[in-house]
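Exercise 7. Given the encoded structure of a 477-residue chain, write a plausible sequence.
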């Protein structure tokens, strides 16, 4: 039986459904934990295909799982569908033009992520039906990756128990197994409370919460020299105490992210930052309340899982772009800064074995880079709640090109491109690769057993959720 041909045929048959899901979820552009229409669209597509759906996983209204088949092995696929604030943009428009009626946008491409993952589930189901193989396929609808740790809450609720192998993907500007490690992250809020007073007439009576925030930031800045080089510490003001400079601010708040290669390292940094916050409160005679709003574990790339996914991806190939896609891409190539454009075109021309002039006519990346064990030695200083899943189940993910090379995530340019046929082609490529990888596990369950051994060697079977016991998904919104 030709597994690859079955998957190709299934994806071709479902292509309009898959690309239609990408476009529908792109148009809904719903924020984390509010993805009501987005989740419903994917649920309907999977139910129409014969999957049995269980809603409200972990008590979250927009989390679900869709199951088909029975017995072992159990193969899971992760899908996301949350958008980002402030990234509304018209599809295919190479200048900043918000999409009418929206302030949100899919600047990280999760519209395509959910659609392509659902397509992979449909394709793998077709294989189980035609082959008669024993096995269970589970699609997990995962909300709020961007700001709400959806998979972390699902992991804490043991939603992924019993799964032998997990696959997922992410839209990008390249086609490669994401075999690098990703860092852990804590999200923490610091609320300072002081005493209000007239800043001109009676400043001695005031105790400034804003001063406390400023002193805290200074202290953390000095600390940055004395943390590991792979750590990242970010902050934003949630409350600056008001707009009147002649009123001593009696309230002010900061939101901090602490990233590091391992959760324990993030915890150590958090403990030090808490001390700095307490010191700032002492210096200003204010009070500080610290609230951990969630966190993400580091991503563990399991070698066997990645090799299976990589082999499938190389066999299936990258996105199959056409002239419609290239015409859109050329508009976005034209707005790149000239130096960045020249460097990117030269690099991509070498990768695609063509001249720079030829690549400028077709400026999209369709070449698949195979997995290498050396990837595991690298640390990508971004975070994902896929990390919490990767501690519990051998997990592998890939990227597929949904924008021209050089397009950054969380930008209006990415929103504009992923909502076009370019994003649709990325969905189809991911669906084929993940679908074929699923068939390999159904054919040879020993691959999942090997991957589970590798994961156990790395973790010792220990998973500590970074989400506090008293935290609900509502708190993380």
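Solution.
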């Amino acid at each position: 039986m030709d597994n690859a041909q079955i998957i190709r045929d299934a994806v071709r048959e479902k292509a309009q459904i898959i690309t239609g899901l990408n476009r529908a979820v792109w148009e809904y552009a719903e924020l984390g934990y509010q993805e009501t229409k987005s989740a419903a669209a994917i649920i309907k597509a999977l139910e129409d295909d014969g999957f049995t759906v269980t809603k409200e996983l972990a008590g979250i209204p927009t989390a679900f799982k869709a199951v088909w088949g029975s017995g072992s092995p159990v193969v899971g696929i992760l899908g996301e569908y949350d958008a980002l604030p402030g990234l509304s943009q018209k599809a295919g428009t190479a200048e900043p033009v918000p999409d009418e009626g929206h302030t949100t946008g899919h600047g990280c491409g999760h519209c395509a992520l959910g659609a392509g993952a659902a397509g992979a589930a449909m394709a793998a189901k077709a294989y189980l039906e035609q082959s008669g193989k024993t096995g269970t396929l589970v699609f997990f609808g995962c909300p709020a990756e961007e700001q709400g740790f959806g998979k972390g809450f699902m992991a804490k609720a043991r939603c992924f128990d019993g799964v032998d192998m997990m696959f997922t993907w992410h839209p990008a500007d390249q086609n490669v197994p994401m075999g690098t490690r990703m860092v852990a992250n804590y999200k923490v809020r610091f609320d300072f409370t002081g005493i209000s007073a007239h800043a001109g007439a009676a400043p001695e009576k005031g105790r400034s919460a804003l001063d406390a925030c400023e002193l805290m930031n200074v202290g953390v800045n000095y600390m940055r020299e004395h943390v590991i080089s792979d750590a990242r510490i970010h902050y934003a003001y949630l409350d600056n105490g008001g707009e009147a400079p002649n009123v001593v601010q009696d309230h002010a708040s900061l939101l901090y992210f602490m990233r590091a290669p391992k959760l324990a390292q993030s915890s150590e940094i958090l403990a030090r930052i808490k001390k700095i916050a307490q010191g700032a409160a002492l210096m200003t005679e204010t009070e500080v309340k610290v609230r951990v709003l969630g966190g993400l574990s580091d991503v563990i790339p399991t070698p066997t899982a990645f090799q299976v996914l990589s082999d499938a991806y190389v066999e299936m190939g990258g996105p199959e772009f056409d002239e419609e896609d290239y015409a859109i891409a050329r508009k976005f190539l034209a707005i790149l800064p000239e130096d960045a454009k020249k460097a990117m075109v030269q690099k991509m021309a070498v990768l695609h074995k063509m001249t720079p002039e030829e690549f400028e006519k077709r400026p999209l990346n369709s070449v698949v880079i195979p997995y290498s064990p050396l990837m595991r030695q690298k640390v990508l200083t971004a975070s994902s709640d896929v990390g919490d899943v990767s501690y519990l189940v051998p997990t592998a993910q890939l990227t597929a090109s949904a924008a021209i090379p050089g397009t950054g995530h969380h930008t209006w340019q990415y929103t504009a491109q992923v909502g076009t046929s370019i994003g649709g082609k990325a969905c189809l490529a991911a669906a084929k690769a993940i679908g074929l990888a699923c068939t390999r596990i159904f054919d040879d369950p020993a691959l999942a057993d090997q991957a589970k051994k590798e994961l156990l060697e790395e973790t010792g079977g220990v998973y500590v959720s970074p989400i506090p016991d008293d935290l609900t998904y509502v708190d993380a919104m």
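Remark. The mean pLDDT is 96. Students should compare their own answers with the one above.
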